[in-house]
C-alpha cells in the first residue's frame, strides 16, 4: 500500500487458550503486511497453551519470540512483552482473538497519514466460542469510539477504545509508562494516561475479531468496575474541580452495570455511593426518581425470568428511601 515499512511488534499475552492460540498466531502470519515480529508471553497457563506455541515456533515466517513464565496477570504479561519489543509500533492481540488479514497494513498506512496521533484502534466483530461471527462492536451500545483529544470523554464514559484493537507508537511508553500492574482494569488507566499526552485515531473498519468466552473478565463486571474508580483516582489532580461530578457519574453507571448483570448486591453498594456523592438534596431527589424507574424495569424483568429472588438488600434499601421521600 505504501513504502513506509516500520517494524510492528505484535504482543500476545497467553493464558489457558489452548483452543484458540493457534488461530491467533496464524492470523498474524496471514497479514498482508510482512515486516513483523511476534512476541508470545505464556502467563503460566495450566492447559496445553505452551505446547501449542512451541509447536508453532519453527513454522513462523517472521521472528517469533516465546516466553514461558509464572502467572502474574495480564498487566505484567503485557509489560514483559513490551520490554522485548523492537518495533516502532506495538500491537496487542489476546490469545483468543484474531486479526483480519488487512489489520496491520491498514493501521500502518493510517499512522503514516496521522503523525499527530500515537494511539490507533478500529472496529471489531464479536465472535463466540464456536467461531460464529456476530455484530460489529460499534453497533452495540451507545458509546462512541475514542478519537482526537479525548481524556474527559473517556473518563466520563462518552467515548471508549474498542476492546483489544489497540496499536501504539512505541515512543508513547517512554512518555507515559507501561501498564499499571496493580490494576485489573489496566487498559482504562493506560488510555487515560495516553489521552493526556496525545491524540487518538479511530479507523472505522472492522479489522479485528473479539471472542467472547464465558468466565472471562468481561463477563464478570464486578472484577473491573471497582478498578475503574482506582484508575480515575490516579488522575484526580488533572481532573480538578470536576472530580466529584465525574465520580458521581461513574457510580451511577456502575449501578446500571450491576443491575443489567442481576448483581443486586453490587448495585446496592454503588447506589449508596452515587446517592451520597450527589452535591445537594435536590440532586439526590432527582437521582432517586430516575434510578427508581430503572430499578423497577430490571427488577420486574428479572423476577419474570426468575433470575433473582423477589427480595434483596437493594429493594429494601430503595423502599426505605421512597418512604422517607414521601414524608
Task: Looking at this protein, list some descriptive labels.
single chain, alpha/beta, Spore Coat Polysaccharide Biosynthesis Protein SpsA, Chain A, 2 domains, nine-stranded mixed β-sheet, two-stranded parallel ribbon, 45% helix
Task: Tell the overall outline.
Answer: globular
Q: What percent of residues adopt helix (DSSP H or I)?
A: 40-55%
Q: Nearest-angstrom radius of gyration?
A: 22 Å
Number of helices: 13
Gap between N and C termini, in Å? Answer: 70 Å
CATH fold descriptor of the largest domain = Spore Coat Polysaccharide Biosynthesis Protein SpsA, Chain A
Which whole number gives the mean pLDDT? Answer: 85
Strand content: 15-25%
The CATH class of the largest domain is identified as Alpha Beta
What would you give as the CATH superfamily of the largest domain? Spore Coat Polysaccharide Biosynthesis Protein SpsA, Chain A
The helix/strand class is alpha/beta
Major pleated sheet: 9 strands, mixed
Task: Point out poorly predicted stretches.
Answer: 304-308
What is the name of the CATH architecture of the largest domain? Alpha-Beta Complex
Order of SSEs, N→C?
A: EHEHEHEEHEEEHEEHHEHHHHHH
How many independent structural domains?
A: 2
Q: Tell me how many strands there are.
A: 11
Describe the structure.
- With 327 residues, this protein is an alpha/beta fold.
- It has two domains: 8-218, Spore Coat Polysaccharide Biosynthesis Protein SpsA, Chain A, CATH 3.90.550; 242-326.
- Helix content is 45%, strand content 19%.
- It has helices spanning 21-29, 49-56, 74-84, 103-113, 151-155, 171-176, 186-197, 222-234, 236-239, 243-260, 264-276, 281-304, 313-326; strands at residues 8-14, 36-43, 63-69, 89-92, 98-99, 117-127, 133-136, 144-145, 159-160, 167-169, 199-211.
- The strands form two sheets. Strands 1, 2, 3, 4, 5, 6, 7, 10 and 11 form a nine-stranded mixed beta sheet that branches.
- Helix 2 links the parallel strand 2 (36-43) and strand 3 (63-69).
- The longest helix has 24 residues, at 281-304.
- The protein is globular, with a radius of gyration of 22 Å.
- The model is unreliable at 304-308 (pLDDT under 50).
Amino acid at each position: 500500500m505504501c513504502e513506509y515499512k516500520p517494524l510492528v511488534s505484535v504482543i500476545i499475552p497467553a493464558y489457558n487458550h489452548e483452543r484458540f492460540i493457534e488461530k491467533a498466531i496464524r492470523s498474524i502470519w496471514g497479514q498482508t503486511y510482512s515486516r513483523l515480529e511476534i512476541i508470545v508471553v505464556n502467563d503460566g497457563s495450566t492447559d496445553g497453551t505452551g505446547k501449542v506455541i512451541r509447536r508453532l515456533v519453527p513454522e513462523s515466517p517472521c521472528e517469533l519470540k516465546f516466553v514461558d513464565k509464572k502467572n502474574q496477570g495480564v498487566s505484567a504479561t503485557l509489560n514483559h512483552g513490551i520490554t522485548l519489543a523492537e518495533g516502532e509500533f506495538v500491537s496487542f492481540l489476546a490469545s483468543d482473538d484474531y486479526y483480519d488479514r488487512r489489520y496491520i497494513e491498514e493501521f500502518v498506512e493510517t499512522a503514516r497519514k496521522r503523525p499527530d496521533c500515537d494511539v490507533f484502534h478500529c472496529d471489531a466483530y464479536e465472535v463466540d466460542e464456536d467461531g460464529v461471527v456476530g455484530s460489529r462492536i460499534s453497533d452495540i451500545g451507545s458509546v462512541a469510539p475514542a478519537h482526537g483529544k479525548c481524556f474527559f470523554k473517556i473518563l466520563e464514559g462518552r467515548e471508549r477504545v474498542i476492546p483489544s484493537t489497540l496499536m501504539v507508537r512505541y515512543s508513547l511508553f517512554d512518555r507515559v509508562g507501561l501498564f499499571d500492574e496493580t490494576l485489573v482494569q489496566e487498559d482504562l488507566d493506560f488510555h487515560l494516561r495516553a489521552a493526556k499526552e496525545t491524540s487518538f485515531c479511530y479507523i472505522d473498519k472492522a479489522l479485528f475479531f473479539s471472542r467472547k468466552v464465558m468466565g472471562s473478565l468481561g463477563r464478570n463486571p464486578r472484577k473491573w468496575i471497582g478498578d475503574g474508580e482506582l484508575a480515575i483516582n490516579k488522575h484526580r489532580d488533572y481532573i480538578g474541580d470536576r472530580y466529584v461530578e465525574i465520580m458521581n457519574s461513574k457510580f451511577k453507571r456502575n449501578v446500571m452495570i450491576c443491575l443489567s448483570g442481576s448483581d443486586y448486591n453490587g448495585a446496592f453498594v454503588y447506589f449508596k455511593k452515587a446517592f451520597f456523592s450527589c452535591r445537594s438534596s435536590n440532586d439526590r431527589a432527582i437521582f432517586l426518581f430516575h434510578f427508581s424507574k430503572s430499578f423497577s424495569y430490571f427488577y420486574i424483568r428479572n423476577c419474570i425470568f426468575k433470575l433473582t429472588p423477589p427480595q434483596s438488600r437493594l429493594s429494601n434499601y430503595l423502599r426505605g428511601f421512597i418512604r422517607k421521600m414521601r414524608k
